[in-house]
Design goal:
Blueprint lengths: L6 H4 L8 E2 L5 H12 L11 E5 L4 E2 L8 E6 L6 H18 L3 E5 L3 E2 L6 E10 L16 H4 E2 L4 H6 L10 E6 L2 E6 L5 H5 L4 H19 L5 E2 L13 E6 L1
Parallel strand pairs: 8-9
Antiparallel strand pairs: 1-7, 2-4, 3-6, 4-7, 5-7, 9-10, 10-12, 11-12
Helix pairs in contact: 3-7
This protein binds flavin mononucleotide.
């Protein structure tokens, strides 16, 4: 499957906790692996990897029970978490496109310690069909709350999943460029314990990249554009899509 075929799934996907525990076939898992290897990363040279683990190899409080998990890891590198969010959101959309489903899980880690562990994703066949929804069923901030200026790709970012549905992102559209910002903390008691807002921003950047392909806009990402507008209050600049 081409990444261009992922676009419609941005508008229908939803996370599930209810998985059919029947393992996927080796052939399906191979196809998923091949797809992930073919994704162009957010930053050239970014090195984010995963292991596919079974339910007996994974631990974490309150994690969804699933036949498979991606255990995602990467050594310290520029925008490590954003690169992980970007790459594996492609995988998430690919799973949905194939009639499968997934859930990002902040606490899902391997029983085997991994110092480079970032996050896990449960995936498999959904137990309850269908694992899709209509646009009206998405619980998301409005475009006005998360952006300034107009660009059709912001709608794709708006619908992206995020931890605690925090949607910690902001976009400034500027003559074809999309400047991207994120909140380092969600605030509040629970939000203070959540440390993956940069990863969330990477997930939304995947949706922007997929929407760019759909619009036929060649997409590049620059993490240090000198003339990006000042961040809105409470936000940090992450990079510019141009
Ligand atoms: C980075 C990240 C971490 C998440 N961690 C958890 C988690 O630990 N437990 C959980 O039940 N859901 C988790 N989720 C799922 C979100 O709660 C969910 O994506 C969000 O509420 C939006 O719903 P949707 O994915 O159906 O659009 C996580 C999502 C993301 C993107």
């Amino acid at each position: 499957m081409e990444t261009t075929e992922l676009y419609p799934h941005i508008f229908t996907r939803k996370s599930t906790r209810a998985f059919d525990m029947t393992p996927l076939s080796a052939e399906t898992l191979d196809r998923i692996e091949t797809f992930i290897k073919g994704v162009k990363p957010l930053l050239p040279g970014s090195e984010i990897t995963h292991k596919i683990a079974g339910p007996g190899e994974v631990k974490g409080i309150g994690i969804a029970k699933a036949p498979h998990y991606f255990l995602i890891s990467g050594k310290e590198q520029q925008l490590k978490d954003a690169c992980a969010g970007f790459l594996y959101q492609y995988a998430e959309l690919y799973l949905h496109a194939g009639g499968l489903s997934a859930r990002w899980l902040a606490g899902a880690k391997g029983k085997q310690p991994d110092p480079d562990w970032i996050i896990g994703i449960a995936f498999g066949k959904p137990a309850e069909e269908p694992c899709t929804r209509t646009l009206a069923e998405f619980k998301r901030k409005s475009l006005g709350e998360i952006s300034r200026g107009e660009d059709p790709r912001i709608e794709a970012a708006r619908l992206a999943p995020s931890g605690m549905n925090g949607q910690p992102w902001y976009y400034i559209a500027d003559h074809g460029a999309l400047h991207t910002y994120y909140k380092k903390s969600l605030g509040g008691l629970a939000g203070g314990l959540y440390h993956l807002t940069e990863l969330d921003a990477g997930i939304a950047l995947c949706h922007i990249a997929v929407a760019s392909e759909h619009e036929g806009i060649p997409v590049g990402f620059s993490a240090d554009k000198k003339d990006a507008p000042e961040p809105p209050k409470g936000f940090t600049y992450i990079g510019t899509v141009e």
